[in-house]
Every structure is written in structure tokens, then in C-alpha cells.
Write a structure and sequence with these properties.
single chain; Alpha-Beta Plaits; 2 domains; elongated
């Protein structure tokens, strides 16, 4: 009977050692299976840091279209900061050149009427070489 308890303890130790290895293998395979969509296809994404929903189209490595979903007047500042940071990340060291197509909200410190619904912030991002 004592031998059975010893064997059970050995099995538990083996499971404890192999379980993290199996978990890491599964995690690595799940992370490596992401394939970006082909150029010209809309990706619906979410940024957890800025709490922003957005659509992104990659035309090529130097040209993107972003549509940041409008949700509230107060959130526009975060959306704008996200736009600048995300454009910088997309261009990877090159200079982001932004063309604002729609959705720039006006600012009234003390509005006398309810704020109208604002359209989504739509931007074209082009990455240009640094002229050094």
C-alpha cells in the first residue's frame, strides 16, 4: 500500500512538470497562427489602452485608412491621442502623414445647445521617408 502512495506522488510530480510545458506550447502555437488579412480588406479592431473601436484598411506598407468609431464627445481626446500613437506605430520609424477626411469635432466650452451626433473620425495615413 505504501508503494502505491509513492507511485501516485511520482505521477503528480511528473504532471506538475509537464503541465507548464504543454501550456506554453499551446500558447505559442495560438500566437503564431495569426495571419494578417490581405491588403484592401477591412479589419475591425479594438485598442484596450485607449478603449477605442476602429476599422483599419492596409493598402500597402506605406498607406492605411483608419476609421475610429465615435462614441462620445468626452472620448474624442482619447481617440485623437490613439490616432497619433497608432499612426506612429504603423509607420515604424517613418513619418506619418495624416489626412483628416471626416469626424473632427468642434469644441465649445459652454455649449448652449445639445451636441449633435458626430461622425466617425476618418483618416488616411501615409508613411513618408524621413528627409535626413
Amino acid at each position: 500500500m505504501a508503494q502505491l502512495g509513492f507511485m501516485t506522488t511520482q505521477v503528480i510530480k511528473q504532471v506538475r512538470c509537464t503541465l507548464p510545458v504543454v501550456a506554453l506550447t499551446l500558447l505559442a502555437s495560438a500566437c503564431s497562427s495569426y495571419t494578417p488579412p490581405p491588403n484592401g480588406v477591412v479589419e475591425k479592431l479594438y485598442d484596450f489602452d485607449h478603449k477605442v473601436h476602429y476599422d483599419q484598411i492596409k493598402y500597402n506598407d506605406d498607406h492605411y485608412y483608419l476609421q475610429i468609431k465615435s462614441d462620445s464627445y468626452q472620448h474624442f481626446l482619447q481617440q485623437s491621442v490613439f490616432l497619433l500613437r497608432h499612426s506612429q506605430r504603423l509607420c515604424q520609424g517613418r513619418l506619418p502623414q495624416l489626412v483628416l477626411l471626416a469626424g473632427v469635432q468642434s469644441f465649445d466650452r459652454l455649449p448652449t445647445y445639445p451636441r449633435a451626433y458626430e461622425p466617425d473620425l476618418q483618416v488616411e495615413v501615409r508613411c513618408v521617408k524621413n528627409p535626413k
